[in-house]
Design goal:
Layout (H helix, E strand, L loop, with lengths): L2 E2 L4 H7 L6 E3 L6 H10 L2 E7 L6 H12 L9 H9 L12 E7 L1 H7 L1 H19 L5 E5 L1
Helix pairs in contact: 4-6, 5-6
């Protein structure tokens, strides 16, 4: 289940006082400000723009394009999990403090393709759990 970001907000997520997870971006926050805060905290962040995405194939294509997945991405659920649990393709300038994905228009995608959205959330959660045991956590904010 996706939760509301606790009172410590984005700053708490980035400084580690809020545990990594899948949270709703508060309506009082913007994606642009969130990306700025993440960069200032040393996190690697990316926007996943899901406007007009209504099925698994389109979702995976958007992930590949917006997140800059490597050429070996196989456009299936297993490959998505592989990319989210091996960020060697995303570490260009050293080790970040964490990883942040902003999934924009999530509710539209979820309404268009509920089973695909559930599977994507499961993969997000598995990746969050994987990174939680390491120095570089992963968090997902749904916008």
């Amino acid at each position: 289940m996706t939760g509301q970001l606790p009172d410590a907000g984005i700053t708490g997520l980035l400084d580690g006082t809020v545990p990594p997870g899948i949270y709703r971006l508060p309506v009082t926050e913007s994606a642009a400000r969130t990306l700025t805060l993440a960069a200032e905290a040393g996190w690697r962040a990316a926007r996943l723009r899901l406007d007009g995405v209504g099925d698994k194939a389109a979702f995976l294509d958007k992930c590949a394009a917006d997140l800059g997945f490597p050429g070996w991405f196989g456009h299936n659920w297993d490959a998505l999990a592989d990319c989210l649990m091996d960020f060697s393709w995303w570490r260009k300038d050293g080790e970040p403090s964490g990883y942040l994905l902003l999934a924009e228009d999530w509710d539209t995608f979820r309404k268009s393709a509920p089973e695909d959205a559930r599977m994507a959330e499961t993969i997000f959660r598995d990746a969050i759990d994987f990174w939680a045991g390491r120095e570089t956590p992963l968090a997902v904010l749904l916008v």
